[in-house]
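pasting for ref
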Amino acid sequence: MARSGQDQPLDFIAVFDDPAAAAKYHEGPRRFVPGFEALHRMTAILLAEGTRHDAHVLVLGTGGGLELRALAEAQPEWTFVGVDPAKEMLLQAERTLGPLMERVTLVQGYIDDAPAGPFDAATCLLTLHFLEGVERQATVRSIHQRLRSRAPFVAAHTSFPQEQGERERWLGRYEAYALASGAEPETARKARLAVDASLPALSPGDDAAILREGGFTDVALFYAAFTWRGWIARA
């Protein structure tokens, strides 16, 4: 049975390439990702552990530039390469970064379009959940290949229990958090439907295993918030 118009899920990918939606992208994560700004602050702290003061950092899934801005403000001597497939999001990133762009190179594409490195650190926030298992594994391996030995890598994305019954419970909490954070009821509902129908989310255990299989060691969970998880690992 086809869904009614009101119950059509959001098309996440289409949003990223729509100029009007890209301009408003910064409003979304704060309503759907608990502790969004804190996640950026924690990421900066974790990357700085044992990293050189003038680190060169790979940011895969740059989006609208919020993560890049937070990292650049936290570490004024770091330089960055930001990679994202959506042209409109990269344009928004330029606007978000302003004068900080002098330390940032933006690349339109995917991980295979990123420079070979070696980079001193890398992040992939709110991105890997868009990839199916095999592609996710290949992307993680490609990130690893671009990092110096023992370089830190922070990944955070949708990851929650996938057992029957548990999955629906956590999706309900995802929607409830968005509503409590000010999202319009229809938007929250469509986002939940989109996650359920088209986001290839894995369990936290499976996600951690992909990091290890991709060559990373010392994989440790540092962030858990409803349907979201984040890990710090070393190349």
